[in-house]
Design a protein that fits this description.
There is one protein chain. By secondary structure, the chain is α/β, with parallel strands linked by helices. Helices cover 36% and strands 13% of the residues. The chain has 11 helices and 10 strands. The radius of gyration is 19 Å and the shape is globular. The relative contact order is 0.13.
Length: 350
């Protein structure tokens, strides 16, 4: 498994990483441990979780993902060989069950959230700590027009980025966190955070975790150049577009136990345009003897500004297929076919 630098943090992470948001909900602890074993044996050293998980947010299972990841690390005795990433939750009506519900990125809340995550995982240090999404109003989670943001009026109260970075510095200086990142962030948010860190001696963002897939290449515009020039690569989530690019949902299928069967309201990757593009990508993969999921993951891995591609799976078979992308180099013909499909139907699932 290829490893890549995590920004300027000094850490090295595997080019594929395993997300654990289904652990404790769609996957039992035993199933989670089996996935972690398979990934680790394949050379993955980078594991992603969040205080919010499982997904979707649920008071009954909040924090279970961290607990299951932590119990696996303890059982395998491999803490010195893994890089653990987790996240602090921002404000939102869906998250009222997390730390009392008044969620902000202040120094006090960052300290509290870090301590709780460490307790759940049974660790002394978090290797990479993200803000899960901006506290301020911004266009993320598929919102393309900033004007559509419900509460983007001037004067809306949110913790200044310098204050958040200063709060992160407290936990870094205390040895509780080794590196920091941002997730679901915009070009302005990333640029401002980097500038503040460099100017004021605050923790420098090591990576950004945003969605990226054949169905959503928004990162290519603006953020890709920043990732390259600022040594702040992408840790891409949803490389299969909620599983769509595996092809299993084509023709309206929703296999029993699948995410679309369980969560049919998550439709961003299943609009008419997205379904048409998915069909074209699946046909391209199969015409070249490739597993559609492996082709999609391999394409994401091939981007020059990619730090790591975060896989999510609910079965060992799905995970094994995704892992096969680590050994896959896409031909010029396949890449040309991807470019043609993208040009005809760009970003149908932003």
């Amino acid at each position: 498994m290829q490893t890549r630098p995590l920004g300027r943090s000094g850490l090295s992470v595997s080019a594929l990483s395993l997300g654990t948001m289904t652990f404790g909900n769609q996957n039992t602890e035993a199933e989670g441990h089996a996935q972690l074993d398979l990934a680790f044996e394949a050379g993955i050293n980078f594991f992603d979780t969040a205080e919010m998980y499982t997904f979707p947010a649920d008071p009954a299972t909040q924090g279970r993902s961290e607990e299951i990841l932590g119990s696996w690390i303890k059982a395998r005795g491999n803490r010195d060989r893994v890089v653990v990433a987790t996240k602090i939750t921002g404000p939102g009506a869906r998250f009222g069950h997390i730390r009392g519900g008044d969620l902000r990125f202040t120094a006090d809340q960052i300290t509290d959230a870090v301590e709780l995550s460490l307790q759940r995982m049974g660790l002394d240090t978090i290797d990479l700590y993200y803000t899960h999404f901006p506290e301020r109003a911004a266009n993320y989670f598929g919102l393309l027009d900033y004007a559509e943001t419900a509460d983007n009026a001037e004067g809306r109260d949110w913790t200044p980025l310098a204050e958040t970075l200063a709060g992160l510095k407290v936990v870094v200086d205390a040895g509780k966190v080794r590196a920091v990142g941002v997730s679901n962030e915009t070009p302005w948010g990333l640029a401002r955070s980097l500038a503040l860190a460099d100017a004021e001696g605050l923790p420098r963002v090591a990576c950004i975790q945003n969605p990226y897939s054949l169905l959503n290449r928004i990162f290519d515009v603006g953020l890709a150049e920043m990732a390259m020039r600022e040594d702040c690569g992408l840790c891409a989530y949803s490389p299969l577009g909620f599983g769509a690019l595996s092809g299993k949902y084509l023709a309206g299928a929703a296999p029993e136990g699948s995410r679309m069967a369980l969560y049919p309201n998550f439709k961003r990757n299943f609009t008419a345009r997205a379904v048409a593009a998915t069909g074209a990508y699946v046909d391209l993969a199969r015409a070249h003897g490739l597993a559609p999921a492996a082709m999609a993951v391999a394409f994401a891995m091939s981007r020059p500004w990619m730090t790591s591609v975060i896989m999510g799976a609910t079965t060992q078979e799905q995970l094994a297929e995704n892992l096969s992308a680590a050994e896959l180099t896409l031909s010029d013909e396949v890449l040309a076919g991807i470019d043609t499909i993208h040009a005809d139907n760009p970003n149908p699932a932003p």
